[in-house]
Amino acid sequence: MKKCIYLSVLLIVTLSCKNTAQFNDPIPEHDDFTIESKIVNETRVINVWTPPNYKTSKDSFPVLYMPDGGVVQEDFPHIANTIAKLVENKSIPPIILVGIENTDRRRDLSGFSEVKADEEYCPLTDGAKVFRAFISDELMPEINKRYRTTNEKGIIGESLAGLFVVETLLLKPDTFNFYVAMDPSLWWNDNYLEQNAKILINSQPLQPTRLWFAGSSVEDISVHTNNLAKTLESNTPQNLTWKHSDEPNEDHSTIFRATKEKALTWILNVKAE
User: Fold this and answer.
1) In the sheet that 42-49 helps form, which strands lie side by side, from edge to edge?
2) Binning pLDDT at 50, 70 and 90, where does residue 15 land?
3) What are the residues facing 262 on neighbouring strands?
4) What is the pLDDT of residue 266?
5) Strand pairing partners for 213?
């Protein structure tokens, strides 16, 4: 039985690395640049979409950061196009999107694990800790230097990127003001984050913060997202405004596209408590 569960998890991880170019999303006009990171010891490609009124105004804008943010085989085009449509319809306020192109997503998006079997899917090196430092200490200052930004910043991710989003909220909550996670891989490290969510989220003062998260019909994921929602229902920390979206009609390959609009509409309009 345990082997079957591991095979199921492996399939989920593999699917989360699929080529999203099959959707033929048009590539929006955007900026791109590289950053020589001393923290991850790599050259990283960054893609940036700015709202239409960025060039015609002197306004500053919030920033949404996105792992899996490559242009060709990742999620930058469809998220940028979605934001553009929502901004045009005045469903959300204008926002800058920053996509971080992957080099080794399994390394970057998974935290420490004491479960030896997890090594079959991702390294046990706590690459997420290093990747998070790259974002906060190198990428954010570079974005703030290049663009007119406010202090408001958030992150969006699915699957392993969703795990990274939830881990960041629980371990380093002041990194972002708002968090969006679809089908986060909370099974990682024997579902440590879900099991310890109450302790972790109350272990340090929380700035006004928003969280939106969703789980699909995949049992290895939905059981943990539903449990996280139960924990938050009975232990909502001060300053956290949150919403859980149970999506039993979606699977792991559809949930990002199925929920992105309602996630962005909620997270960018709700007021943190």
Assistant:
1) 31-37, 42-49, 96-100, 61-66, 149-158, 178-182, 209-215, 240-246
2) very low
3) none
4) 98
5) 181, 244
Between CA 118 and CA 83 the distance in angstroms is 35
Phi, psi of 64 (to 5 degrees): -110, 120
* CATH 2.60.410.10 for domain 2-267: no
Q: What does each C-alpha distance from 209 to 31, 133, 154, 164 come to in angstroms?
A: 29, 20, 10, 16
Token pair for 70: 């490559």
The per-residue b/e assignment along 115-141, b for 16 or more CB within 10 angstroms, e otherwise, is eeebeebbebeebbeebbbbbbebbbe
**Domain locations along the chain:** 2-267
Q: Which two tokens stand for residue 67?
A: 């792992």
Q: Which amino acid would we find at residue 138?
A: E
